[in-house]
Amino acid sequence: MTVTKEPEGSTTRTAPPPPRRGGEPPRRPMPAGHVILVALIALFVGSFLNARGMLKTATGLNLESTRREMSLFFAKPLYRVAHFLHTDRPREWIQEAIGRGGDDNIARVAGPSPTTVPPTTPPPPAPNTARPGQPVVVPPPPPKPVFDAAHPLRMYLAGDSLAAVPDQEFINLVTGVHSIAVPNGVDFRISTGISRPDVFDWPSHILSEAKSINPNIVMLTFGANDDQAIESPDGKVHSFGTPGWITEYRRRVGGLMDALNAQGRLVYWIGIPIVRDPARWQHYQLIDQVYSSEAAKRPGKVTYVDTTPLLAGPNGGYADYITDASGQSVKIRAADGIHFERAGGRRIAAAVLDRLHARFDLRG
Amino acid sequence: MLFPTVTFAIFFMIVLPVSWLLMPKPARWKPFMLVASYYFYGYWNWRFIFLLALSTLGNQLFGRLIHNTEDERARRGLLAAAVALNLGVLGYFKYYDFFISSGQNLAHDLGISVAPQIIAITLPVGISFFTFQALSYVIDIYRHNFEPVRLIDFAVYLSFFPHLVAGPIVRAAEFLPQLRERHDPRKVDGSRAFFLIGSGLFKKVVIANFLASSIVDKVFASPGRHSSFEILIAIYGYAVQIYADFSGYTDIAIGLALLLGFRFPQNFDGPYTARSLQDFWRRWHMTLSRWLRDYLYIPLGGNRGGRWKTYRNLMLTMLLGGLWHGAAWTFVVWGGIHGTALAFEHWRHEERIARGLPEVEDTLGRRVFERFVTFQIVCLAWVFFRADSFSNAWEVLSRLFFHWGGNAALVTPWVLLAIAVGIGSQYIPGRAVAHAMAQFSRLSPAVQGVVLGFGLLFINVLGPRGVAPFIYFRF
Predict the structure, then answer these.
(1) Which of B9, B222, B474 sits opposite A171 (nearest CB)?
(2) pLDDT of res. A10
(3) Of A8, A11, A12, A14, which to mutate for an interface test with B (greatest number of B Cβ within 10 Å)?
(4) What percentage of residues in chain B have a pLDDT greater than 70?
(5) Annotated catalytic residue B144
(6) Which of B391, B383, B212, B217 is nearest to A164 (CA)?
(7) B313 vs chain A: nearest CA distance in angstroms?
């Protein structure tokens, strides 16, 4: 269709109106005011019916944001009225019918606290009893625990969006390795973390899943969304990076490690690698520091995997591409400069697998 | 700002009444809509506003220059410069690291060691869409189909928020005349608009997101762990996911535009009911197909240069159409499969004519067979479209054929139902939909609002938590 030289203000031929097939019943046109009224009623009714979900969404916003305050200002009374009028019931019924009954629950408990773990000091080295000139007798290392197809090393992989690609690549790497079993695949949830149990209560979820899966190793990847304010059990809100934040975050991380150790499981905690944005990387370094220092307090029980050396460029800085062993340039990071392409995830997965081979006798 | 969010609902409920209030005064309405659209776009990343503004100014300048130049050679030169500039910007943002890394790897294979600094450039959302729309404006002016309009009109056209980030690709000739129309506020096609928005939300939030998280993402991430049956259902699942995702977005976009008093062209028309690849491309992403036909295939010569040139033009158009979708060779293969199939259909049709064979009888069996075969070819191409590398695509395809038996835990009744709904809905007669819309339009506003409110409940509660971005945002 061509349209040429139409004078300003004239009515002209444009995109064809919606096709009307022969005999199609005519639609009654609506005045604009009617349209606005219908949209408002729809949003009003929809809000009352979804009030519980809206309260959950508003609660999950950044603790220190005005947006959260404003959202809660509307969402809380809306939920109270909806609950009083029972208009939140249909949502509950549908959720229960499709097996998602707990979707709108808002957890207040911020995970277990660490058990009192005295810093473990490694045993002193055995005195050197060899005479000068004689070779030093090194005692043989203790035998590695053996896992095979009949008794595989069971693993549970969980975390935020950072876990998705590396954990999936880990599963790909161990496909066909019968001495390692990952029965439940990757348990990851985007936009979650340890800082906000009200968004998703990871500690409770992990401990409950671990009980049911009974893994030897729990591999956790967190932190992408944890650079935000946090609420301690006394109800105080601590801004990111403050001493109060570090204490509370450390309590949650250490508490989760201890709770898993108490169930008899080893923990592999994957650190956040260097990211493109320097300001964000500063935040993540603080989070990594909590993970690594908490892991160091639990030698032999918690292993921290530093991922920056695996993904940094030749100069040690952030890199979207790296040159692989075959000399090919491969993209390792996603467009956002935080997450991973598969090649990046594979590097992390391979590093974890190397550590497992070093520690266990994996047969088959 | 994603459509299925509370933030967008608030934004739209402010824009909608103000837009109708200002509509009788275009001198106020246009700046208002421009600011609203730029706010919508800047919500993703405010820096991209400058790119959109520069694209607007640059293309308006070229449009004016071409229009004011009489010498044909100079006009052609200006058009070439405008096309080069648009594609250059698109290429820089979309293909820079792809071509640099591909070149580096090719050099390495040839034994040449080069190590340029490769940086991933953030892709401005919607750049492929507004670049194509701007090109349609400049090319139509060059072809004397159109005269340049005022800068504010062109700026509103290019940035109009319902189509800005993922289409449909609305041409200048389809939109700009509507700016000069008198929009009657007593005659809004509200029932169709609400139907499109509701069905679009359902397709995106419930069908597409559910299939992605339940089977498609898992299978494509680790094909080696899944049986052939799971792979097959995941491929069909992806076919439905991408249809529900993209057509859902454009349904919402068309519905929002209707509420604001504007008509957009249709973008999907039951693509999985197609009986041939040619038919498929008349039904899938129709605005892109038309764009490629009018601004690429026909200028290349179309079917005017004989049989082999037609095949070449079809193949080139589809290869470039593939590359438009993303900077990866897998997209080129996707385009190649479609180009080959289209060329084959042309060849077969011409062979029949050359041999004087009669038309094949149009039986039910034949229709079912043709639809089945077309859908399988489309699905085969989707494997390359979805896979993140060739090795991933080959692994999916090899597992598809050689690992029958074994568990198929991901193939749940809900997954099969979602696929059935996604495909079956395309066979619903248009008359039935029109009848439902007509019935809805006769309800009182209160009842309409309550019906839509319950629709919001079902969409919100059945969809997974969180809002996944639309697939076509990254194109």
Answers:
(1) B222
(2) 36
(3) A14
(4) 95
(5) no
(6) B217
(7) 23
Tell me how crowded residue B244 is: count the other CB atoms within 10 A of its CB: 29
Is the Cβ pair A37, B259 closer than 8 Å? no
Residue A12, classed as helix, strand or coil, is coil
Phi, psi of B244 (to 5 degrees): -65, -40
Of residues B325, B338, B346, B435, which has the active-site annotation? B325
Which pTM does this prediction carry?
A: 0.81
Strands annotated E in A135-265: 146-148, 153-159, 180-181, 186-188, 217-221, 230-231, 237-238
Report whether A290 contacts A250 (CB < 8 A). yes
Give the C-alpha separation, A200 to A193, whole Å. Answer: 7
Q: What is the ipTM of this complex?
A: 0.80
The reply to whether residue B190 touches residue A342, judged by beta carbons under 8 angstroms, is no
* Residue burial A209-245, b: 16+ Cβ < 10 Å; e: rest: bbeebebbbbbbbbbbbbbbbbbbeeeeebebeeebb
Give chain B's count of helices (H) and strands (E): 21, 0
* A281-306 confidence digits (pLDDT tens): 999 999 999 999 999 999 999 999 99
Closest among A46, A44, A50 to A92, alpha carbons compared: A50
Which of A319, A218, A205 has the alpha carbon at shortest distance from A263? A218
Query: For residue B314, how many other CB atoms are within 10 A of its CB?
Result: 25
Provide the H-helix boundaries in A114-201: 161-174
Work out the minimum CA distance from B182 to partner chain A, whole angstroms: 7
Q: What is the 3-state secondary structure (H, E, C) of B40-67?
A: HHHCCCCCHHHHHHHHHHHHHHHHHHHH
CA–CA gap between residue A132 and residue A18 (Å, rounded): 97
Query: Which residue, chain included where needed, has tokens 């009444």?
Result: B17
Query: Do B13 and A43 count as a contact with CB atoms less than 8 A apart?
Result: yes
Q: Tokens representing A47?
A: 């809000």
Determine if the peptide bond prior to B168 is cis (ω within 30°).
Answer: yes
pLDDT digits (tens, 9 = 90+) for B285-323: 999 999 989 988 888 888 887 888 888 888 988 898 888
Question: Left if phi > 0, otherwise alpha if psi is -120 to 50, otherwise beta: which for B379?
Answer: alpha
What's the gap in Å between the CA of B40 and the closest CA on chain A?
Answer: 18
